[in-house]
Amino acid sequence: MATYKPVVVQTFPRLGERVTQDTVYWRGYKTPVQIKEFGAVNKIDFSPVPPYNYAVTASSRIHIYGRYSQEPIKTFSRFRDAAYCATYRDDGNLLVAGSEEGSIRLFDISGKAPLRQFDGHTKPVHVVGFLSDKYRIFSGGDDYSSNLWDIPSATEIVSYSEHTDYVRCGCASKVNADVFITGSYDHTVKLFDARTKSSVMTIEHGQPVESVLLFPSGGLLVSAGGRYVKVWDVLKGGQLLVSLKNHHKTVTCLCLNSSGQRLLSGSLDRHVKIYSTTSYKVVHSFNYATSILSLALSPEDETIVVGMTNGVLNVKHRKPEERKEKSEKKRQPAYRTYVKGRTYIPKQEDFCVSKPVKRVLRKYDKLLKSFHSSKALDAVLEPPIRLYTPEVTVAVMQELHRRGTLRSALAGRDEKQINLLLTFVARRVIEPRFTPILVTVADMITDIYQPVVGQSPIVDRQFLRLQEAIGKEIDYQEELLEVLGMMDTLFATFTKKRATYLEENKSNGLTETIKPNTNS
After folding, report:
1. Could you give the CA distance from residue 288 to residue 469 in angstroms, rounded to a whole number?
2. Residue 20 neighbours by CB under 8 Å, 6+ apart
3. H or E stretch including 279?
4. For FRET with 193, which of 108, 158, 282, 310 sits at 20 to 30 Å CA-CA?
């Protein structure tokens, strides 16, 4: 009796994902840690000095987390209502935050009570930050105003009321201590100089501005609003350099990595996109569970923290670099042991003993070996095989067709099984690698179950889906044939025709034209 040969599953080349240096770099993070906050996380800010703790603003509290702590190491809760935009100073000693009641509070990291309170806004303050001189604070509120405050005297220096809608984002220049930028829901981004009484530049973004970011050099400005991320050249008077539209919903936050060569954007579409700042193309992306409100990257790109609308804080830490040299040294003796004798060539007088190799058959092979055709087909229609390795399902159908038992395996099925078969066929019949056998399967199913058409609305719906899929594929193929005909015509016009009646005889530097004999 001949031994059973397992079903040969035809392999097809896959178009794998292009692995780049960015892919390897941004995939080098551990499994994320989930931390639940009391409300939506509206701001995350890393301390610029070691150990790089980060402040999380959510609901009416500001929590300070260590790099690897899952519980807050400090909490500021002196707010009657919601707190907004807790931001560190450059030296990491002070923290400033806005609030729903319109006041601005300044905290010392080592204390709990506010050092200063700045009152002047009449509506909630959503954006605050330090100027680079460390002694002044800028703010923007829902009263349409952008203010500048003096820390030592706790007084207002100047107030600008040029926006016509809520001011929801802002940033300060690291190059010039008098320059700060605000973005508003009036679709504009304004650049202010503390030495002047009005804005020195206005940029029209075209959508309500949710976030602004200034490059460390101070020459480029990034604004986010709607589905757009736009880059502007400040030195050229606010000239638009590039407009990016890679998100499907509103972009809510922006961030730069430590080198300034990668720009990160978070959106309500649950994605974080990473762009190259030279080509402004997406080099990588992260997918999250819910909509993203805030995003921050640690100064050494060691930790990426994302805040979401459901109050969950997603923290990813970079994996430690593996020490390859030590691991290789440990493996060397074991490797030599395993390969010992592998290159030995037996002599003529040697007696070779071969160990029989036990072949493990899969479930569908065992059923086919026992001639259980219907059960073998059921085995390959299970979700793990049907969804992730459809080539196995098609290979078993091909084997049943070769044996002549495919029709009997398809017959005698109930409504649920017919629905499963038709769903698989309608989904995969348009794939060229599966089309030949699945067309045969569809033909057999139609012949077998034609008498019961009209008795089950579920089966009828699947037959209509199959008809629609095949109809669309036929139309698609007809269009491709038309395009192929057009291309053949174009290629034919580009073909060089041979000269039939003129020949050029170039010899001795002279050109002689010879006409063909017309008498012949």
Report:
1. 33
2. 283
3. none
4. 108
